[in-house]
Write a structure and sequence with these properties.
It contains 2 helices and 5 strands. By secondary structure, it is of the alpha+beta class. The chain has 2 domains: 44 residues; 93 residues, Beta Barrel (OB fold (Dihydrolipoamide Acetyltransferase, E2P)). The chain is elongated.
């Protein structure tokens, strides 16, 4: 009987190891999918997009290691007859499209309309803002 018992025990251990390896692989696959999903939602998913209109007050190239292009617009909610903003708010944004940089440099002090995409989280190589501007027009 000792031969039968000894031959059954390794089979049970091997079966347990095989089953635990399958469970470990499934858990690892689930963890990898969750990490990929969270990374996509936090860094690449577009939370909102739209247009903003206002006075382009500042546009600069800044950063210690990663140089990014940052802009600041004054959004006016109430204006007088002389087109002077009474109640205003600032809209801070980043520009990653290199073809827009020359346009923004020439439009400082003008009233513009920009199209932006808002991301969930800002990335240091993408800019200081979660708002990424991808087009600009002069407001007429």
């Amino acid at each position: 009987m000792s031969q039968n018992e000894s031959s059954e025990k390794p089979v049970m251990k091997t079966g347990f190891r095989t089953q635990s390896k399958k469970v470990f692989r499934w858990l690892l696959a689930i963890v990898v999918l969750v990490v990929i999903s969270i990374t996509y939602v936090k860094y690449f998913y577009t939370y909102s997009e739209g247009y903003r209109a206002g006075l382009l007050q500042k546009f600069s190239h800044k950063g210690a290691i990663f140089k990014t292009y940052e802009g600041e617009m004054i959004l006016s909610s109430v204006s007088t007859t002389r087109d002077v903003a009474i109640a205003s708010d600032k809209f801070l944004f980043s520009v990653i499209n290199k073809s827009l940089i020359r346009q923004f440099d020439t439009l400082q002090g003008s009233t513009v309309i920009v199209h932006y995409k808002q991301k969930n989280t800002k990335l240091f190589w993408r800019g200081d803002s979660e708002y990424l501007v991808d087009s600009v027009k002069i407001k007429r």
